[in-house]
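To whoever is covering the structure queue this week,

Two jobs came back overnight. Logging them here so there's a record in the thread.

Job A:
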Amino acid sequence: MNSARLLLLPSREKAAAEQPDEGACPHHAPLPTKRGGSPLIRPLQGCLLPQGEKGLSPPPPVLSFGSLVFDAALPHGLAAGAHEMAGEGAFAFSLMLLARALDAHPRARGLVVQAGEAAREAGLAYAPGLQALGLDPDRLGFAWVRTGAEALRVVDEALRSGAVAGVAADLHHEPRLDLSVTRRFNLSGRAAKSAAFLAVRDLLATSAALTRWRAEPAPSRGLRRSPIRLLGRPAMQLSLLRNRLGPTGEWTLEWDSDDRVFHHPASPLSAPVAVPPVDRPDPARPPRPAKSVGPYRQAG
């Protein structure tokens, strides 16, 4: 397999996809030759200035969270562009945000991208599991690629195409996800009004992502129904470490897969029922020392 393959990804009119918003980087338009004054500087602002800084209007919002507490803390929601998340629940959180984006755009589709290393660590996306999380597999395209570099190219092409409302990518550890790549994702997402939710192993690299999160699984409250107690909604401990368009903070939220919204729990969550996972694979055991063998007696 020499190249990434996209499945079930629809196409939209090229004219609508290639038409940039005001302030976006004019990749295909020739630069003006006039020296001095705004006609030369204005087209370059979309390329050189980071999103949300002075001189540019903020990117258009893509989705809200559905929680009154959460949306009050982040009144602008998540804007079009790149968003990074790390932690044990990073990929699950990215899929939840993709479900919110698809719910906000009923006629749009989404894309799930998994690099080979990430798939070997956590397994491939499972359609019944995605449906239980609130995603409709019929509205999703899937791309399984060998390397993180191929995954980044797929995300870039999907954002630039304008055919998706959002992309959830499980990248695990990809050193090429740097300042220039995330800035390009911001520009492409701004033009197409779509977002990229990038699940990574850590947040140590320099990045132009609009938000950076740490998502950890939290204990569930459970559903009390006589005569048995059922599993409750998935819960997340979310830490917004960076927000270029607003405040940061920490929240514990539950995910409602039926309505595809986040809820702030009204009562304290129960204690965890499982120990935290350990690093895999298990280290190999040292070889046992050989038993000493006495002198042999000559036969005969």
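Job B:
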Amino acid sequence: MFFLTVKGTEIGGKNQMTDVTGIWFSYWRIDRNYADFTLIEGSKIPATFGGMNLSFPLQFPVLKTKRLVLRAVNDHDAAVIFRLHHDERVQEFRGEPVFEKEEEAMKRIFYWRKLFANGNGIRWGIEMKATNKLIGTIGFKSISHQHLRADIGYELDPDWWNRGIMTEAIETVLNFGFEEMKLHSVEANITPGHIASQRVLEKSGFRNEAHYHENYFYKGWWDSGIWSIRK
């Protein structure tokens, strides 16, 4: 095991306390496989903003549906994560480069682990319950504790498109966010013209609330469509 503290304190040490995003004081333990996050020192002291508290899980939550298991992504998933982010069909509307090396997938996995450890987001792997096969990911890319709002993101293996998989995953994550984390609203930032993603969001109850013109640059200017759902 090794210990990770966040926001300006060193990795390692003993009985350290550190401010996590200004929301609570905590001390996290992460195993070598970056799959087990546990609060082991300090107490979770949620900040109060007008009487509203966000409840962030202390241990990584595993969610199950009829067909899916949503669980932490680990090192053994690197090949799948690389394949997804290397696939031009998956990346077409994302405004970011495709992965060229599996090492990039490992870095992304570690980033997702840190995101959870810092209390700033959760990324689940989407696994088929019948085969234990990882086919995509979904999660809250960022969380505003003050405003009880999260930004959702996702990707799915094209072999599993048009089967209702992502709708099933989104609805499960939304239920967890609203009921367990006490979120007030969730937004999705997608590229206008990404019809498949738009339809999935509509099925899940999202509404298109804004269209930003040329607000993002990657090999040219991109528009952004902001979709949102409230509890």
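Note for Job B: Residues 2-230 form a domain with the Aminopeptidase fold (CATH 3.40.630.30).

Please reply-all if you pick these up so we don't duplicate work.
Q.
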